[in-house]
Write a structure and sequence with these properties.
Order of helices and strands: EHHHHEHEHHEEHEHEEHH
Radius of gyration: 20 Å
Mean pLDDT: 77
Low-confidence stretches: 1-7, 26-55, 165-177, 329-371
Number of helices: 11
Shape: globular
Helix content: 10-25%
Distance between the termini: 26 Å
Structural class: alpha/beta
Length: 371
């Protein structure tokens, strides 16, 4: 039988950041168990061709249900523990300005800044930023939150992939990999003596969390790393299994890439995957099933003009809350629909997404060779 010829359809996806907050109850009804990976079957690989057509810039639009969803109430300080989508308001209001100033940054209306604002706000609300607390960050990269949290007297264990994996994936050459504790120190946020006393470093694979870390932390967090572990299902598994690191009363805060322009089309398996609403809802249901607390998501996409004017390649360092990514649709080969980046140039753009649009933060090593 001759091999099936793959046909490609250009498509643009509109992306935003989704934040997820999970809490451990003080009395779990049962001990949660590890979740195994699923849906990891082989997938079609595009054959080499000279096809470089793209969809028209601006073709991707925010779905109506995200426009019309009820607003979040974080501006009143009431729901920072509720997962939601990045918006211009939350990335640039007085609350955001205060947190960004404390991090040594000015407001740029950038989604990476919104991630920092959300993570800080959630952990503040949960009472985690105080002496005696212990936190762990996955895929540490060079983000400032490590030094910032330590400045409150919080003990931080920073983790990242091993050096070999970072070189293989390209993170080591783009300031997105932490190879030791020295690269995590931010002198504008904390003095060196206090930093050395409170911050430590170790390598970690997000797909295989070490058991010696279980039950020893008050909180864990990651910034846009869930989408780089190899597949959506692996990201879901990591989010659940990382909860085993927490003590009763602990919390996890994660952010990930999210599609606003479709409920079905996505990148499901590769170095960068893109979460859909149903993927987040499935994670929420699974977390509740094994005994964890997670609020309903707020799906409001925002009200500002910038919330509906996505940034397009080449991406800017400001006014970057949503972005448009060109990809290529591949018809299913007996399974679910798959979306592929349409050329090597855009695969590289997806792999280095944090450089172009986030300005830092590392991405973890995939357990599968899906390049």
């Amino acid at each position: 039988m001759s091999p099936r010829k793959l046909c490609f359809r250009p498509l643009n996806l509109l992306l935003v950041v989704l934040a997820i907050v999970i809490c451990v109850t003080f009395r779990l009804s049962k001990k949660p168990s590890s979740i195994s990976a699923s849906n990891l079957g082989a997938w079609a690989r595009p054959q080499a061709s000279g096809f470089h057509e793209t969809s028209p810039v601006g073709a991707a639009k925010v779905l109506l249900e995200f426009k019309e969803s009820p607003k979040c109430s974080s501006l009143a300080g009431e729901s920072w523990t509720r997962g939601r989508l990045a918006t211009t308001a939350e990335a640039s209001d007085e609350h955001a300005e205060r947190i960004l100033a404390a991090l040594g940054e000015g407001v740029r209306k950038h989604r990476k800044q919104w991630e920092f604002v959300f993570i800080v706000s959630s952990l503040e609300k949960l009472g985690m930023l105080q002496p005696g607390k212990r936190g762990l960050v996955f895929a540490a990269g060079s983000e400032p939150l490590i030094s910032y949290f330590a400045s409150f007297g919080v003990e931080i264990v920073a983790t990242d992939m091993d050096a070999e994996g970072a070189i293989e994936k390209g993170w080591a050459t783009t300031n997105q990999h932490a190879k030791n504790v020295d690269g995590l120190f931010k002198e504008n946020l904390i003095d060196r003596e206090k930093f050395d006393r409170l911050v430590s470093y170790r390598t970690a694979d997000m797909n295989h969390v070490a058991s010696d870390l279980h039950g020893t932390f008050d909180f864990v967090w990651s910034t846009c790393s869930l989408e780089h572990v190899g597949s959506i299902s692996l990201g879901q598994r990591f989010a659940i299994n990382s909860m085993q690191l927490l003590r009763p009363g602990g919390a996890a805060v994660h952010t990930t890439e999210f599609i606003l322009s479709s409920l079905e089309d996505t990148l499901e398996r590769d170095n960068t995957v893109l979460w859909r609403k149903k993927d987040a809802e499935q994670l929420k249901d699974d977390l509740r099933h094994v005994g964890y607390e997670i609020d309903e998501f707020c799906w409001h996409a925002g009200d500002a003009g910038l919330d509906y004017t996505p940034d397009v390649p080449p991406y800017k360092a400001h006014d970057h809350i949503k972005l448009e990514m060109p990809v290529m649709y591949v018809p299913p080969l007996g399974g679910s629909q798959e979306i592929h980046n349409f050329s090597h140039r855009h695969r590289e753009r997806a792999r280095l997404l944090s450089v172009a649009i986030d300005g830092g933060g590392n991405r973890p090593k995939s357990s599968s060779n899906l390049q």
